[in-house]
Every structure is written in structure tokens, then in C-alpha cells.
Amino acid sequence: MNGGSAPRNPGPAASPRGAPGRTLAVTGAGGFIAAAVQRLVGPGMRLRGLFRRDDERAGLWRARGHEVVIGSLSDEAALERLVAGADAVLHLAARRGKDDLTASRSVNVEASVLLARTAAAAGVGRLVYVSTISVYAETVAPDGLITEEVTPTGIERLNAYSRTKYEGECALRELSEAGEAPGLTVVRPTNVYGPGGRAWVLDWVARLRRLPVVPGGNAEIDVIHVDDVARGLLLAASAPSATGETLHFGHETVRLADFARGVAQAAGLRAYALPEPLDLLVRAALEYGHRLVRGSRRSTPLLGRRRFSHERARSVLAFTPQISLERGLRHLAEWFGGGCPDPRTTVLRAAS
Ligand SMILES: NC(=O)c1ccc[n+]([C@@H]2O[C@H](COP(=O)([O-])OP(=O)(O)OC[C@H]3O[C@@H](n4cnc5c(N)ncnc54)[C@H](OP(=O)(O)O)[C@@H]3O)[C@@H](O)[C@H]2O)c1
Distance (Å, rounded) from C-alpha 198 to C-alpha 187? Predict the structure, then answer.
């Protein structure tokens, strides 16, 4: 659990490019965030990635000198190969579907527990579990600011994704405290965008191509660039001070309308927001309609105001995101303009 709030020494091994000479085992290696980790890791740190299929994504890892293990998260033999001799595990794999609680639990909780036990049995020292800020979708902070000290509430009303990500956190924390899992860091990223991002880039572009209107656009969201998340995760995997911590990784608060307009512009599209009174009506209809039809909460609430503190990641890891939204969107525009090259090989250009 989190200790006091005094600043900690990140430790000599901690670096936003990983720790040379160490091996980091990565689940969900074919995904969006893992691609940025792979791109940004410094020379000397070995990566070993778990892929479900031996496709071109796995081939790219091999071509860059990293190891590849093929298998699913519930395949114990594959997990044993993944963690053998590793110093730390970065657990990114997750079932993102929101409607099937049993299926989500089997990946996000049960398979996560299997991974943690397998890693502990292999003597792995550190486990970074990447959770989500949407564990707070039903949580109301009295002053609107949610810190890591706030315990998420209303878990049984969350959608299958957010609920099982939180259940996964709890299960791993319990195991780790009992000495049956490696030293644990839970990271809750906010909304991660960047080239190749599905939820906050490609899905928005597809939606805006169909209807160039941002519904619920006046709601606020916290966004962070994928490269910043990757650097923070590499730090978390190597910083001894992060053990036992729960950390928010977020950066800028922005109106959903402004963010979506920025993404649309980057993709060469136009997007329109609704005037405030109509927008409020639409937000209420979407929020309550979702509850009625799906019986659960949206991952990103459209009503109420909440902000997320990023202070703890700064004090524990000395982690400060570097990529402003303006710069991140500029880079996104270059990516779209260049015909969307493989995000695993394109690097964010230095600030101009
Ligand atoms: N992106 C965001 O905005 C965001 C925000 C907060 C938290 N997160 C968390 O960050 C993590 C990574 O997110 P992401 O955006 O990189 O997601 P992603 O692109 O969907 O990647 C997830 C990866 O997990 C793999 N996977 C799913 N089920 C698996 C299973 N049963 N066995 C093995 N691998 C499995 C998928 O494999 P395939 O490629 O074969 O499908 C995929 O490569 C997730 O845990 C997510 O909850 C993401």
C-alpha cells in the first residue's frame, strides 16, 4: 500500500529508458503501449514479450533484438518461459471488452494472478500492473480532485473492464503482501493517445468520419501521450521506491470537444461540438442511457467534474510527462499525413 507522502529517492537503477543489464518481461507486447515501450527502451535493457500470435509485430521485436514468447496469459508454460530469469514484469495485457464479466475476469484477474504467482516462483523481483483510471468511474471526490489515497467506490456498478481491472489490482496486492507475488506497483494511466492508439485516436477518427459531431464534448478528460506513459513504466519497473505504490499516470485536463477536435484536425477531418445547453442534455442522455441499456457505467463519465492528481508519480518516481497535448497532436498530424507508418518504428520528433 502507499506509504507516507514524503518524496522518495528513485534509486540508482531508475531511468526513463529502463535499466541496462536487466531483463523486462512484457505481457500484451503486441499492443499500443507496449509498442512505445519497445521503441523507447534504452540499449542494454533486454525485453522479452508475450504475443498471442507469431505475426509481424513479434517479428519486429525479434528484429530489434528482443525475445519473443508466443502464448496466451492463461498458458502457464508460456508464462514460465516469459518470466524465466527476468528482473521485472510489465503487465500490459488486458481484455478490453466491457460487457462480459466472466470473460474479463478470466483474463484481467485469474490470468493476472497466474502470471504473478509464476513470476514469484521464478524469483522475479518486481511486477508493474497497468490498471486504469476508469476504476474511479463511480467515485466522487468531495473537492473533485482524486488522489491515490481515494479508494474507488461503486465497483459492482462499473463495466466489466473497469471492474475486473480493479479486482486484478486487489488480487495482486493481496498476493504481493502475502509474499506470493513480486513487489508490486499499480499504475493507473488516464486516457492514453498517440500514433496507433485505438480508444482515443483510431476509434474517434472512425466515429467522426461517420458523424463529425463530438457528443458530450464539454466533459473534461485527462490525457497523456503514449511515449510519456512508456517512459514512466520503464521508470516504475526499475525504481525500488515504486514497490508497494499505486500511481496515477496522467498529464493534461482538456475538454473532450477540444481533444476530439485536435484528433480530427490531425487526421484531416472537421469536428463540431454542441452548444452548452444541448451538450448537457446529450451528456445526460448518453450517461443514463448507457446505465439503462448496459446496466453498468461508462469508463469515462460525461457528467460531474473530476480531476486526477499526478503528484505521487512525481514524488515517488520523479516522473513528469514531457509531451504537451499541442506537441502530441502535431506529431499525430505528421503520422496521419505520412500515411500512418507503423507506430512501433516512428519516433516522436524533438520539440521544435
Ligand atoms: N490505451 C489506453 O488509453 C489505456 C488507458 C488506461 C489503461 N490502459 C491499460 O494499459 C494496458 C495496455 O493498453 P493498450 O492500449 O496497449 O491495449 P491494447 O493495444 O489493446 O493491447 C493489449 C494487448 O493485450 C493482449 N491480450 C489481450 N488478451 C490477452 C490474453 N488473454 N493473453 C495474452 N495477451 C492478451 C492483446 O493481444 P492481441 O494483440 O493479440 O489482441 C494486446 O496486444 C491495458 O492493461 C489497459 O487496461 C490503457
Answer: 20
